[in-house]
Design goal:
By secondary structure, the chain is α/β, with parallel strands linked by helices. It has 13 helices and eight strands.
């Protein structure tokens, strides 16, 4: 049975939220970390903690963009037997538990995606109830088969944009974007506390000139102040390493509670 009806198209919620003046909060967690039960609890908690969408990452042995926290989480999840199929199972359970929950985005790398092939990947995403997919190491102009397979099932392929992307290429990426645009805040790998590149505001302006989709900023968002700074420049933030670290160290209740503090911070009016 397909659960896609509960989730497919829900990324429109992000545009509606932005139109209402809300800054978007998009947490990331690794499927199966620190174990399947805890991951499922964290997913459920994030749904009630003010998330606007949630990225569920497929654990991968060579995550080129990820820093030590998420790389270690992937290693532990893989050691526990978590595969891309388990990510689909977690998503299906999440969707079954609440039809109006924030939409899920499958975050994966090319190797796990290629193990299934574009059509099987897209079909599994739709059946599990994912609202979109993101393939972190697949350049936007080299993804026609993946994008087409997802599109046939009504699912967008989310594009990543880097602070080093030239303006012309960034504009092209934005014009072909679907769902939302994920702008990497700084060069390097994921990880909290490293700040954002000065070019973020410039990159956001280029993206906004070429698409009306929301722009969310990720990499380096590790506390309320960095979240508020990034959200002032863009439409919202992605928070990964800081949440994953707390999840493994303190458990789902504490990690989700911390995410609520970010939600509250994003909801506070910006001082003039």
């Amino acid at each position: 049975m397909s659960h896609a009806a509960s989730s497919r198209g829900n990324l429109r919620r992000l545009m509606d939220a932005r139109a209402g003046g809300r800054k978007l909060l998009v947490p990331f967690l690794t499927a199966g970390y620190p174990d399947r039960k805890t991951c499922a609890e964290a997913l459920a908690g994030l749904a009630d903690a003010g998330a606007d969408a949630i990225e569920l990452g497929v654990p991968f042995s060579d995550p080129l963009a990820d820093g030590p926290v998420i790389a270690a989480a992937s290693e532990l999840a893989i050691a526990g037997g978590t595969s891309i199929e388990d990510a689909f199972d977690l998503a299906a359970g999440y969707v079954r538990a609440g039809a109006d929950r924030p939409p899920l985005v499958l975050f994966t790398y090319l190797n796990p995606a290629a193990s299934l092939g574009p059509d099987r990947l897209a079909e599994a995403c739709a059946d599990a109830g994912f609202a979109a997919a993101l393939v972190a190491d697949l350049p936007y102009d080299e993804d026609p088969a993946v994008a087409a397979a997802l599109a046939r099932r009504g699912l967008p392929l989310i594009r990543l944009a880097a602070p080093t992307t030239p303006a012309e290429r960034l504009a092209e990426l934005a014009r072909g974007a679907e769902g939302f645009v994920y702008l990497i805040a700084r060069t390097g790998t994921t990880g909290a506390g490293a700040g954002t590149d000065a070019r973020v505001a410039e990159q956001v302006a280029v993206i906004r000139a070429n698409t009306d989709l929301p722009v969310v900023v990720g990499f380096g968002i590790g506390d309320t102040e960095s979240a508020r700074r990034a959200a002032r420049l863009a439409d919202g933030v992605v928070v990964g390493s800081a949440f994953v670290e707390r999840l493994g160290r303190d458990g789902p209740a504490a990690a989700v509670g911390w995410m609520r503090t970010l939600r509250d911070a994003l909801d506070r009016p910006v001082s003039v």
